[in-house]
Amino acid sequence: MDLAFTNEEQAFREEVRQFLCDNVAPEIRRKMVEGRHVPKAEMVTWWRILNKKGWAVSHWPEEYGGTGWTAVQHYIFKEELQMYPAPTPLAFGVSMVGPVIYTFGDEAQKKYYLPRIANVDDWWCQGFSEPGAGSDLASLKTKAKRKDDKWIINGQKTWTTLAQYADKIFCLCRTDPTAAKKQTGISFILIDLNSKGITVRPIQTIDGGYEINEVFFDEVEVPVENLVGEENKGWDYAKFLLANERTGIARVGLSKERIRCIKELALKVESRGRPVIENPSFREKLAVCEIELKALELTQLRVVADEGKYGKDKPDPVSSMLKIKGSEIQQTTTELLMEVIGPFALPYDEHPESSLEAMDWTVQIAPSYFNNRKVSIYGGSDEIQRNIIARAVLGL
Amino acid sequence: MEFELSEEQRLLKESVDGLLTEVYGFERRKKYMKENAGWRKAIWGRLAEQGLLGLPFAESDGGFGAGAVETMIVMEELGRALVLEPFLPTIVIGGGFLRHGGSVAQRAAYIPSIIDGANTFAFAQLERNSRYDLENVVTSAKKKSNGWIVDGEKFVVINGENADVLIVTARTRGAQRDRSGIGVFLVPADAKGVSKKSYPTQDGLRAADITFTKVEVGGDAAIGDPENALSLIERVVDDARTALCAEAIGIMDESLKTTVEYMKTRNQFGVPIGSFQSLQHRAADMFVALEQARSMSMFATMAADFDDAGERAKAVAAAIVQIDKSGKFIGQQSIQLHGGIGMTMDAKIGHYFKRLTMISNTTGGADYHLSRVCESDALL
């Protein structure tokens, strides 16, 4: 056991950092630091630079364009992206549907979709949740019915993140309504969002933004070959995908970057005649958050180092714990930022009339606080993660 | 970066676990506790036979040259079995002072008798008003011809009554809270002027309050610089606190296992209580708390090799904050989930809880160490 990064690992970190310095547009970085929206075109441009470098799908097997890095290198890469900060590769493509396709898909699917995912030729979104199927995802109702060489899709998906940008959606659809167990009648189908019969409707979230959407399917025709893996085995693929999602969800680098912001801002803003950072109770809360984050960082590295112990298709159930702690810390950091800016959390939207020049980006702090309540809900709520730990780790 | 134990480390873990499984059942522990020393000489001999008492010492001193990770492994296993024998005061603290500050002559005089199990040590540091501040020392050591005269009172000295050698912190000059002017002295337990009052501790160990009245020791009794040994003391105490973190991890791990096992077997309302979701979620939270604590125990262990003493101290402080928080949660909830039986001395879980609680009060716990982290400009 040796917990220090090796010289090679440090050198790798430097290499990644230098690449980010040289290649991330300053505009993107500024928007990320300030918690602002980065437009689709800017993100895609950046991801294509990453793809050209060969780092867009770094964790994929080498035969599909992966890098063959060690687990620690992957961790360093992700952390550097989050800390720089630069947009991390689009999870719906790179971390979700991509691994499902190369693990369970057929040759034609691999050949067609994987390079397009790497280059963001297709923007993917996730069609899992439905109005009646949230935590109880297996009770989903969207139907796919076989008709000749087509699937006919009817139903509704919801909470579909960035569907407004998307070209494709991967959907869980019920293909066998008569199955004895509701989990066994579900299939994993790839759908072109430009198909006739699909309507995307944006939903405004409590931060005032538009990230999520409802997606309606009305007699949508999908070629039969868009089924991934076996018919009625979609639930297994979804579990595989969700566990992958959870390891990425700890967002240690992002929380580190946010703590850096908190320290910077808390030094500038005064309360009762002293910088907020000198307020003992604030300082203690911040220190506790940093300690929890340090612990999470090492826990994540331990999980990463153990990868493969549970077999390729069965991610470590301990990743549920990363989701729980990662969410808690992300939410705490946004809460601490709210405490720092105090009354200036109130203004909604940009306020050009304001004379608070130095604080011009603080308008994003309250929205970010509101928006971050989502992290303990999506990807399997904290309560679902506790169910998983109780069952799969503790055997209760 | 590597998280897997090496082959040798894995064998070490297995050998300690094997030995303790053989000789350290819960019922046997109760008997060992009743022996005069508060622990069992024969068990100490077994630890010596297996080479555990020589682990951290340099090969040139007759040891195995093992590092902080090996100490972590051993302490975690000792925690699991709630071992009473004085590994911490003798090997980690006594051995630590000799390793980090001892002269060639001191190492030659003391280390062989530690490794073969003949002598045990105790660390006489706590004073009436010092709490966890290591620089707060009133006990005095005054120069007299070639030696020193030690006067003062020390409290809650673990293994104090039974130790062969006492390691005493004492002030050679300056005021009560000065960082300079503190020395560390090797005092034979039977030296004239040493008097002890011994008593059991809450967690089943034995401790003593020790008074030093005009105790004369030689000039060779001082470890390191008698006028400036605080950084040595801080170094060794950081190691000891790190070792206690590892012990706490062993205890938390066993507490959770024991509790989950109980939840599977205890039936109420016709079903195992482990089938209730509110209790499942509690157990899941205990698991999360344990893994966070385990990571910080590793972090503190890794920090033992930091060059910067300030960074090392901060890492240990941060680890204690996490381990104290996790330990309180796991300890308290283990009792809660056991219900009535958890309140009894008959069930092992209560003994884990008591030791875990006392570790917190020995290290200083979250409150003290969080304030230390906060004193740093950059925080963690």
Describe the 3D structure:
The complex is a heterodimer of chains A (about 400) and B (about 375). Helix content of chain A is about 45%, strand content about 15%. Chain A is of the alpha+beta class and about 400 residues long. Chain A has three domains: about 5-90, no CATH class; about 125-235, Butyryl-CoA Dehydrogenase, subunit A, domain 2; about 250-395, Butyryl-CoA Dehydrogenase, subunit A, domain 3 (Up-down Bundle). The longest helix of chain A is centred in the last third of the chain and has 26 residues, at about 280-305. Chain B is globular and about 80 Å long. Chain B has helices at about 5-25, 25-35, 40-50, 70-80, 85-100, 105-115, 230-265, 275-305, 310-340, 350-365, 365-375, and strands at about 120-125, 140-145, 145-160, 165-170, 180-190, 195-200, 205-215, 220-225, 265-270, 270. In chain B, strand 9 and strand 10 form a beta hairpin. Chain B is of the alpha+beta class and about 375 residues long. Classes of the chains: A alpha+beta (about 400), B alpha+beta (about 375). The interface of A and B includes residues 5, 72, 306, 325 and 389 of A.
Spans of chain B of 5+ residues with little confidence (pLDDT < 50)? Answer: none
User: What is the oligomer described by this structure?
Assistant: heterodimer
Distance between the termini of chain A: 31 Å
Q: What does the largest sheet of chain A look like?
A: 4 strands, mixed
The CATH H-level homologous superfamily of the largest domain in chain A: Butyryl-CoA Dehydrogenase, subunit A, domain 3
Average of per-residue pLDDT values of chain A: 92
- The CATH architecture category of the largest domain in chain A equals Up-down Bundle
In CATH, the architecture of the largest domain in chain B is Up-down Bundle
Find the biggest chain interface: A-B, 43 and 41 residues
Give me the number of helical elements of chain B: 11
How many alpha or pi helices of chain A? 12
